[in-house]
Amino acid sequence: MSGLRILITNFSLETRSGAELFVCDIARGLLELGHRPVIYSPRLGKLAAEIRKETVPVVDDLDKLSAPPDIIHGQHANETLTALLSFPDAPALFFCHDWYFKDDSPPRFPRLLRYVAVDDQCYDKLVCECGVSEERASVVRQFVDLERFRPRQTPLPPRPRRAAVLCNHTKENEYLRAAREACKRAGVALDVYGIGVGRPCARPEETLRDYDVVFAKGRAALEALAVGASVVVYWWRRLGPMVRADDLADLRANGFGVRSMGPQLTPDEFGREIERAITCYDADDAARVSRLVRESAGQGAAVGELVRLYEEVIAEHAAAPPSDRALEARAVAAHLREMSLSFGRQREAIYGSTPFRLTERLLRTPVIGRLSRAFARGLAGRRAG
Questions:
Q1: Measuring CA to CA, which of 40, 159, 322, 323 is 20 to 30 A from 345?
Q2: How far apart are CA 39 and CA 27, in angstroms?
Q3: pLDDT reported for residue 374
Q4: Are residues 83 and 208 in the same domain?
């Protein structure tokens, strides 16, 4: 068989987060080029079943993978380290997707030879916080499957009529109510998609074609632009600008993320900013933005860049002396120490929280504590039976 065998790791493959969808798209692109991607995640769900139907192997236990990979494309620290320890002769690169998520900080390990960021802020995280040298760091920006996300069939109307929010963090609260009221005042109907409102968007390539304005960030924003919507950078309680052609390069460099947004707003401020953003709607400029995205953000170029990096890593590893197992063991020990400290901080935060203290106080009261323990014993008995 020809092509590289590439093991891709990820924290989960359950929902439709940006990193999870990125994994699936990369696997599809590699398969089309004749390579052999395999995805590992200890948490599998519907998305894992979907990509497996496309003949991409998916495992939740690396003992099921008997053929060693040529390279590990690591995403998320613990899963990357699991793969490195399972395949002691495979080199790796690490891909960082998120500024905030702790697991998007790479483990320090001798066989991790390249570090890739999805945008400029993640690049700064790698180089300025995680100790990665600039010689080993690069950026491969978000991309769009242009065959899947085809342009809308009709041009945008002169005035927007329909808008959509695409965000898994959005919930039914005062911010969403303010957004709905602002859209209503602007004469725009608003629909909301995301896990937080119980309405995940399973087929965004079809859904996005129905909307004139889309509020989204990151990958979802880029896909909406490729389809032809006018996009406002949005995340939960924060807003950025309406994406204009003159600002596209800078916004894409920032991944349509936090650096593209203003500060967290109050609900009233949020509603006013939503209404202001809608007044910036320009159908002609949105069409120009869409053309630029389709010219510059296709999947093929990004997958090709990753394959070039894979080949660099494999060649460097092949030319290097045999791996120093003692050095690798010390790297694992350092990672475990950091995990222990992190778990300790999490426990302290839980034990110090108001809900935990109130629960403990209630359980110590004679009546409520006795009833709670009896209920717990009965529930455990039913489960055991």
A1: 40
A2: 8
A3: 67
A4: no
User: Which residues, 6 or more positions from 272, have their beta carbon under 8 angstroms from its beta carbon?
Assistant: 182
Cβ burial 108-119 (10 Å sphere, 16+ → b, else e):
bbebbbbbbbbb
Q: What phi-psi label fits residue 97: left (phi over 0), alpha (psi between -120 and 50 degrees) or beta?
A: alpha
Q: Are residues 274 and 308 in the same domain?
A: no
Domain holding 196: CATH number? Answer: 3.40.50.2000
Edge-first strand order for the sheet with 189-193 is 189-193, 162-166, 213-216, 230-235, 238-242
Domain-embedded: residue 147: no
pLDDT tens digit sequence for 306-341: 999 999 999 999 999 999 999 999 999 999 898 888
Claim to verify: residue 193 and residue 218 sit in the same structural domain: yes
Residue 364 lies in a domain: no
pTM: 0.87
Domain that holds residue 206: 162-296
Both 122 and 185 in one domain: the answer is: no
Question: Does 367 map to a domain?
Answer: no
Considering the domain boundaries, does residue 356 fall inside one?
no
Structural domains of the chain, count: 2
Instruction: Summarize pLDDT for 68-123 with one digit per residue, the tens.
Output: 999 999 999 999 999 999 999 999 999 999 998 888 999 999 999 999 999 999 99
User: So what's the pLDDT on residue 38?
Assistant: 98
Tell me how far apart the alpha carbons of residues 332 and 278 are, in angstroms, rounded to a whole number.
51
Identify any residues that bridge with 164 across adjacent strands, giving them in sequence order: 191, 214
Tell me which residue of 380, 158, 171, 174 sits closest to 286, measured CA to CA: 158
- Whole-angstrom Cα distance, residue 261 to residue 85? 39
Are 315 and 280 in a shared domain?
Answer: no
Query: What is the Cα–Cα distance from 144 to 131, expressed in whole angstroms?
Result: 30
Place of tokens 């342009």: 151
- Identify the segments of the chain with pLDDT beneath 70: 1, 356, 360, 362-363, 367-385
Q: What is the widest separation between alpha-carbon atoms in the chain?
A: 71
How far apart CA 65 and CA 71 sit, in angstroms, is 14
